[in-house]
Design goal:
Elements (H helix, E strand, L loop, with lengths): L10 H10 L1 H9 L7 H8 L4 H13 L3 E6 L5 E6 L1 H4 L2 H24 L3
Antiparallel strand pairs: 1-2
């Protein structure tokens, strides 16, 4: 593989960029059970501000991983759901989570050894 494989427009880098944002994978994982309103997402996730959630949802929608459904009701209702493309990332996210579960203690121990 040449160094050209990691240019900004290469597909591998695109995939890495999608999962490098902390909240992208978390929001995708939470949406695996079906559509949710922003308030429901914030409750399920915890620790995410409304602003960051909105930015994350917009980024995921821009990339075709999430779709926004607005309902003409009073008051207006908005829900977000995974697209078919978004669902294809659930397997890799699950695998990464399994890796973290298996090796997380080793990573934390290395961080502690190297922190001072």
């Amino acid at each position: 593989m040449t160094t050209d494989a990691y240019l900004a427009d290469c597909r591998a880098r695109l995939a890495f960029d999608l999962l490098s944002n902390t909240w992208n994978a978390v929001v995708l994982w939470v949406l695996r059970d079906g559509p949710m309103r922003p308030g429901e997402l914030r409750e399920r996730i915890g620790g995410i501000s409304p602003k960051v959630l909105t930015e994350t949802l917009r980024r995921l929608e821009f990339n075709g991983l999430v779709e926004r459904h607005a309902y003409a009701e009073a008051p207006p209702r908005v829900e977000y759901d995974l697209t078919a493309l978004g669902r294809t990332l659930l397997g890799p996210i699950d695998a990464f989570g399994a890796w973290a579960f298996e090796h997380g203690d080793e990573v934390l121990a290395a961080q502690e050894r190297n922190s001072g």
